Amino acid sequence: MATILETRHADVMPLGHAPQDNYLTHGRGFLSWALTLDHKRIGVMYLCAVCSAFLLGGIFAMLLRTELLMPKNGPEDVFLFTRDAYNQLFTLHGAIMVFLFIIPGIPAALGNFILPIMLGAKDVAFPRLNLCSFYLWLVGALFFVLMLVTGGLDTGWTFYTPYSTSTSTAVVTAVFGAFILGFSSIFTGLNFIVTVHTMRPPGMTWFRMPLFLWAIYSTALVQVLATPVLAITLLLLIAERTLGIGIFDPALGGDPVLFQHFFWFYSHPAVYIMILPAFGVISELITTFSRKHIFGYRFIAYSSVAIAILGFLVWAHHMFVSGQSAISAMVFSAITFTISIPTAIKIFNWLATMYKGSISYATPMCYALAFIFLFTIGGLTGLPLGTLSTDIHLHDTYFVVAHFHYVMMGGTLIAFLGALFYWWPKMFGRMYHERLGQISAVIVFLGFNATFFPQFIMGAKGMPRRYANYLPEYHAWHVASTIGAYTLGIGLVIAAIALIWGLYRGKRAPANPWGSATLEWQCSSPPPHNNFDAPPVVGDPYAIHQLVYDPDQSAWVPRQEKIVESEAMLERHTDAGTTGH
Amino acid sequence: MKRFPQCGCVASDDRTNGSNRKQRNVFMAAHAHDHAEYNPIGHVASKPMLLTVFFLLVGLTALTIWQGTQLELGTWELIIVLVIATAKASLVVLFFMHLRYDKPLNVFAFLSSLLFMSLFIGLTLADAVNYQPEVSAKEEDAASP
Amino acid sequence: MSATADPSTATADPHGTAGHGHGHDDHHEPFLAHHFESWQQQFDAGKLGVWAFLVQEVLFFSGLFCAYAVYRMLHPEVFEYADQFLSVPHGAFNTVVLLFSSLTMAWGVRCAMLGQRNGLIGCLAVTLFCAALFLGVKAYEYSEKYHAQLIWAGADPLTVSPSGMQAGAGHLLELDPEKRAVGEQLEERLASTLHYLEFGMGVVGLLTLAAAVGIYYAKPERIGLAVVFGAISLSAIAIVIGAMASMGIHHMMHASGHEATADSEAEAAHMAEAEDEPPVHTATPGTAEIAGSTHGASVKAELSRPQRLGTFFGIYYAMTGVHALHILGGMVVLTWLLARAVKGHFTPNYFGPVDYVGLYWHLVDLVWIYLFPLLYLIG
Amino acid sequence: MTLFRLLALPAAGEASLWLPEQASTVAASVDEAWWLVYWVSAVFFAIIVVAQVYFMWAYRRRAGWTEQKTAHHNFPLELTWSIIPSLIIVVMFVKGFLGFLDMRMPPADTYDITVVARKWSWSFIYPNGVVHPELHVPVDRNVKLVMSSDDVIHSLFVPVFRVKQDIVPGRYNYLWFNATKPGTYDLECTEYCGTNHSEMRTKTVVHEPGGMERWLEDRIEDIMKMPPIELGTLLYNQRGCSQCHMVDGKGGTVGPKFEQTFGNRHQFTDGSQAVGDENYIRESVMNPQAQVRTGFPPTMPTYKGLFREAEIRGLIAFIKSQNPKFKAEAEREYAKPAGETEAGDASPDSDLPDGGANGAASADEN
Fold first, then answer.
1. Residue C277 sits in which domain range?
2. Whole-complex ipTM
3. Is residue A280 in a domain?
4. Chain B residues within 8 A of D305 when measuring between CB atoms
5. C165 touches D at CB < 8 Å
């Protein structure tokens, strides 16, 4: 066996230059992209698409932060935008960021590219369905654009009835767009579940799967189980608005609280669709850049699944003051607390992984370290929101806004950026600008805290969210927050420059620039059309000590003589060789 | 319900995991000539089974109609109706959808959908029981005396 | 390589470029996708995918069942009142039709697995026919309810909000008691609606039949297209038969007088109105009759309907409508299967699509198995 | 020292960096829960960040340092850091839940105020029938708000009381509190409700003992002093008439437009006819189902016992003045104050702003 392994390694391992025939060069012209069934190309198309959506959502965020620079006197006083325009701005910011960016962000864009390669498969199980998901995303996005030009949307991204059934904006178009995006997400999740179950090559057991795959798999479970409820909710909302079927509209005998139950049954698990993949990314980044085996692999893997399942049981904590019963509030508060445990476990395990490591400050790691800091704040500020009596005070204030931005942006977006820098060389075969990347991480970190930390304070003092106007006592905090937002924007632009510069000027990426042991680093950068020119060697995904840095190739290469020994060790550690599915 | 000899063989074989599916094909090929109704990949439903299930379904439908239109059972009615419907649904799932012969994973997937559905409906209902009073009901109370 | 199948083997061969020992694994097979190693793997992946899709479907429908459960628990009187408008015979007929279509579908899967092409074609055609028959009966039921003003809240002029606001704008029918259809008028309107439907569907059926036959003889190589036209023709004719059959059931029931169908109910209400008697179905205390004492008889009969009748019908139309959409979707994929079956695509190794569509179709049946008693039988 | 107090440990009831001052009985319990969570979070945050920063420094990649092999997992350790947080969150949950129960269970002897929320204003209806856009409550008394909404979901939030409750249309929602400190505080809508959501703010005034009664009497006097047409306009805006009846092209369309009500001949569903005069309007308000105009649904609720005589007079004056033909006559006829107390000074200065959300004008009087 050892001889086989060694020969395989010789075939596979880093070539130091991009192969002529890779997935980018395999087929030319518009149609070769538009009709591609290659998960890597679909991933790249998704990446462009979600980044455009992020840009749009970001512009709306900047505009609404600018509007909040000044408090106003009374309803007629205007700074830059009218009240209606402001309401549209925060709605569009929320709806675009949630439905078009953050839900498909890591799973559909990066997951699509990475998941099959990491798994050692040639493609996802259903490549056509995969392409179909992308086009559904595109159609959904088109409906959002259509909504933008035909009256906009001012319901908040939550579409609460009866406001959404009575406002004059283009609710039906937006809701239909979100409905379609829901199916895009369902199909992506379905594809990933089947891929993980049936496309694992021999040797790739469940407990040899990198934690990113566990995270994406858990995410996919949530996508398939929760999103259909959103679909039926939105369908009923469309029927409510166009026909008046009387299920959600109190004027017709319907029940708005029922709508909230429907909506949050999806939308709370959906926050785990957003954050779980980020956990996966951070597990990969911490271990690679600390040059350590991940600490507590199984606890992290199980905690992903646990979060996915528990995430279904807490939805009504968004409704503690909505008129739901006290008993429900109690039950949902109790379950909400339990979800903090698996989350805390992850953070402790990441820290333990760093212990006695050799920590590199490459850009992805800078983002990962920022993630731990910001996500810890985001997670801990969830506690007063889960505590019933304090939630009554904090609900629908800026405290909530700050909390979920710390989780969604300080968590998911930061992880997305880290992942982008990390896999950029793999995706496009060139290194990004390291120094600029590090600078961007620092600026984003500072700007982010400046933007959202003041919002915690405002919220605790009682500043309600979704307010176009505010009392003068909050003025200084709002100014600080807006300045922070501009800083954050600048940081993001620098990050984009660092990446795009790499596409044109970056030096050629070796197969394994970071010394990571997961399978995607065994194929060349960028990967060939069929992912692997030779079958990858499946082993412990975190056996990083098997790799040594080779200055000649400026890449990491396997420590050949160590392989046999490590195989033996690996079998001791992963006793699940025959677990199968 | 009749047991079909070929089912036992396939059912146990279906529990093999993906990685040794090749072996299983070999295994099946060896048995191929034992069964007239053989498929290399999945379980073939036999004619008598399909017909039995269908007539059972029609019979249960008749029963539930009789019960629903002729009997006055009050609150029990809902429960009985649901029990019969669930019996019918189980027949369809187990035999028409051959879940009885399917991989445990698929069974698990289907059951999980029922679990999450009952969570959704159950917890929402539990909340709805304790709703705040409706304005319309109060207005009528005020108007009626 | 992969034949060794020992999970601890540390190499993977995602290509399958190395030796294949089995006949099934020939990658030149037309329907084995490149990224699968074997028919079995392809089938298992597809099957898991379909089950995951069905999980998705169950949760999709769970929203409707949840709305049903909540409203039924909060307003049982509305459901008891509304139950009389749903015709059990029609529902029962449709139930049996769907059960039978499930049988033929399961039989079709069996035929596909055994490589019986003709049996498969026959089973698929019967399944498609039953699906359309179901829709025909549903069309009858919808038009009957429409004419009897049994509509969802927003279209029902009598659903007025609790806080005194007006119902949604578009009134489909007029309020004026003079113009309200009494039983016979209603029957006439219903019959004429159905005649339009039957005529339209008949024309579609004949035209598509002609197209199918024409293509079959003129361009035998476009057999798939001919099958599609044939399937549309079959469906259209089945819808006509369904509508006619329901009218037949309706007359039979009317003659025997067992069931209070929607129009006889409206008739009864109008009798009550004419005689200025208390309404036939007095509302449960605490729900309606807000203005009963001060109002003319014309409003009285209307207000005897529980206040949230519109919500019940909102739920009714949402549930049966979404289910009917699934039937329609099923008909589309059945047509696709039929075309492929005629072309002879399916073999004992490659019957996945038939099996998958079958699973979907049984799930649609499954939903109806619950809808029928929950809507038609609980009074 | 001040900084420290601001950050973490304010004296009981005072404002800190985080929380506004306390002005209700439940606020103390909420704040205790807050500080409990706050300190637990602070400790965990400190542990995590100190460890992170230390590792970042001590194990940075540098010449002469290479990673050390450590265990891949340590079950007792992992179990410990799962179980300890679990125990802590149980404490938090119980603390929060007990506080919540207090907030959700109103005591028996409450002073009830009816609240009607609409886009984008509040009406607080006091036990003696006074309707006012500000919330006035007596100090040290259990107050219960019985709240309903005319249109979309609103939410009533008084930060210093630490109470908040959504107001869902179609249902009654309740909120109770016991104000402990006289003063004037903010009251905000916290459920997004459209264009002027951020302007749907008003004042909460907590009166000293005896002050509440005086204030209510003053409000009745105000009504009596108002010119009837002005009073009618106010009632039209505050009491929900505008939901169904249109004036100047604004308002609902369910009921008849007020432009055409006075002086025109109307057809009723029972076949009779009548001219819209003072008596007709009075009857329509007090017993609306007696004569329902054809073409309109019989949905008008009765206001019997809900209006004072002066207020009905005001409404009649207002509706009469809406018909251009009778405007001048109405102005002449209803020149005297609605209460007809003292003749003459029909002062246009009202203490009641006309139903707007902006209660600033009237806040000063307190």
1. 36-158+184-377
2. 0.85
3. yes
4. none
5. yes
